[in-house]
C-alpha cells in the first residue's frame, strides 16, 4: 500500500514537471514557428505553432548582406569570450585575498569595493572618461575593459572561497608551493561552480549588450550582433511608417504586408539566442550550486 501511494505521488510530480517544461518550451517553439511563417499569414491568422506555409523570407531579409551579420557575430563572440575569461580571472584574483582572515586592510578594501555598488559616476562622466581620456571609442576594448569587474560577482566568489578549507592552502605552503601556484592549481579547480556561475552571468550580459555599441561605436566593422539586429528592426519600422503615411517611392515596396516585420522580430530572437542555448548546458550543472553557496553563506 505504501509503495502504491509513493508511485501515485511520483506520478503526479512527473505530470507537474512535464506541464512546467511544456509551458517553458511553448513560447520558444512559437517564436521558432513564427520566424518560419509568411508575414501575410501572420497578419491574417496570428501566431500559430504550425506554420501554414514554410517561408524563409525573414531569414533571407536578415542575411541579405551575410558578411555584415557574420562580422557582427564574430565581434560579439570575440567580446563575449575574451571579456568573460579576463573578467573571471581578475575577479577571482580580487576575491581570493578578500576571503583570507589575515589580509591587511581587509575591511577598508572591502568597504571601498562595496561603495561602488551604491554610487556610480553616471552616464555622462563615464562617456567623457572612456572617449576623451581613455580613447576607447571605436575600439574593441570598449566592450571589454569597462565591464571587467562586477562587484556582486566579486562578493559571490569571495563567499565561495571562504567555504574552501584553509588547510588545503596551508599544506601546499608547507610543501613549498607559492601563493600563485596554490591559487591557480588548487583553489580555482575547486571553485568551478562559482566560476561557472559568474562566467555564465557575465557572458549573458556581454552577449545581450547593444547599448555600448550605440554609444561608442561608429565603425560598422565593430558593431555587435544585438546592435545590428536593433538597427535592422528600426529600419523596418521606418519603412512601415513611410509606407503608412504614403511617402514611399512608387514601385519600391508594394504594401505594408510585404514588409517582414513580425517574422523578422522572431527570426532575430532565434539568431540572438541560439549560441547561448548551446553554451548553457555546459554551465548548468555548476550554476545552481555556485549561485546558492554564494548567496546563502556569509
TrEMBL record:
<dbReference type="InterPro" id="IPR000515">
    <property type="entry name" value="MetI-like"/>
</dbReference>
<dbReference type="GO" id="GO:0055085">
    <property type="term" value="P:transmembrane transport"/>
</dbReference>
<feature type="transmembrane region" description="Helical">
    <location>
        <begin position="264"/>
        <end position="283"/>
    </location>
</feature>
<feature type="transmembrane region" description="Helical">
    <location>
        <begin position="109"/>
        <end position="128"/>
    </location>
</feature>
<keyword id="KW-1133">Transmembrane helix</keyword>
<feature type="domain" description="ABC transmembrane type-1">
    <location>
        <begin position="73"/>
        <end position="283"/>
    </location>
</feature>
<feature type="transmembrane region" description="Helical">
    <location>
        <begin position="72"/>
        <end position="97"/>
    </location>
</feature>
<protein>
    <submittedName>
        <fullName>Carbohydrate ABC transporter permease</fullName>
    </submittedName>
</protein>
<feature type="transmembrane region" description="Helical">
    <location>
        <begin position="182"/>
        <end position="204"/>
    </location>
</feature>
<feature type="transmembrane region" description="Helical">
    <location>
        <begin position="12"/>
        <end position="36"/>
    </location>
</feature>
<dbReference type="InterPro" id="IPR035906">
    <property type="entry name" value="MetI-like_sf"/>
</dbReference>
<dbReference type="GO" id="GO:0005886">
    <property type="term" value="C:plasma membrane"/>
</dbReference>
<keyword id="KW-0472">Membrane</keyword>
<keyword id="KW-0812">Transmembrane</keyword>
<feature type="transmembrane region" description="Helical">
    <location>
        <begin position="140"/>
        <end position="161"/>
    </location>
</feature>
<keyword id="KW-1003">Cell membrane</keyword>
<keyword id="KW-0813">Transport</keyword>
Amino acid at each position: 500500500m505504501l509503495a502504491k501511494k509513493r508511485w501515485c505521488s511520483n506520478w503526479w510530480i512527473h505530470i507537474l514537471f512535464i506541464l512546467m517544461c511544456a509551458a517553458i518550451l511553448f513560447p520558444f517553439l512559437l517564436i521558432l514557428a513564427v520566424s518560419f511563417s509568411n508575414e501575410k499569414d501572420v497578419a491574417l491568422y496570428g501566431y500559430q505553432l504550425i506554420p501554414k506555409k514554410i517561408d524563409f523570407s525573414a531569414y533571407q531579409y536578415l542575411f541579405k548582406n551575410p558578411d555584415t551579420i557574420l562580422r557582427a557575430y564574430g565581434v560579439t563572440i570575440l567580446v563575449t569570450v575574451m571579456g568573460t575569461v579576463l573578467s573571471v580571472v581578475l575577479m577571482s584574483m580580487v576575491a581570493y585575498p578578500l576571503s583570507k582572515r589575515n589580509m591587511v586592510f581587509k575591511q577598508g578594501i572591502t568597504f571601498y569595493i562595496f561603495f561602488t555598488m551604491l554610487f556610480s559616476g553616471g552616464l555622462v562622466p563615464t562617456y567623457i572618461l572612456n572617449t576623451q581620456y581613455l580613447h576607447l571609442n571605436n575600439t574593441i576594448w570598449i566592450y571589454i575593459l569597462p565591464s571587467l569587474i562586477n562587484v556582486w560577482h566579486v562578493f559571490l566568489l569571495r563567499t565561495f572561497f571562504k567555504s574552501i578549507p584553509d588547510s588545503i592552502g596551508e599544506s601546499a605552503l608547507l610543501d613549498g608551493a607559492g601563493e600563485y601556484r596554490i591559487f591557480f592549481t588548487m583553489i580555482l579547480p575547486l571553485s568551478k561552480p562559482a566560476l561557472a556561475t559568474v562566467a555564465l552571468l557575465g557572458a549573458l550580459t556581454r552577449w545581450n549588450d547593444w547599448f555600448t555599441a550605440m554609444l561608442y561605436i561608429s565603425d560598422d566593422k565593430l558593431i555587435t550582433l544585438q546592435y545590428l539586429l536593433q538597427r535592422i528592426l528600426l529600419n523596418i519600422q521606418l519603412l512601415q511608417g513611410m509606407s503608412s503615411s504614403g511617402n514611399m517611392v512608387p514601385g519600391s515596396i508594394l504594401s505594408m504586408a510585404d514588409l517582414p516585420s513580425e517574422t523578422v522580430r522572431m527570426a532575430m530572437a532565434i539568431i540572438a539566442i541560439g549560441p547561448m542555448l548551446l553554451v548553457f548546458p555546459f554551465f548548468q550543472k555548476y550554476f545552481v550550486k555556485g549561485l546558492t553557496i554564494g548567496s546563502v553563506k556569509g
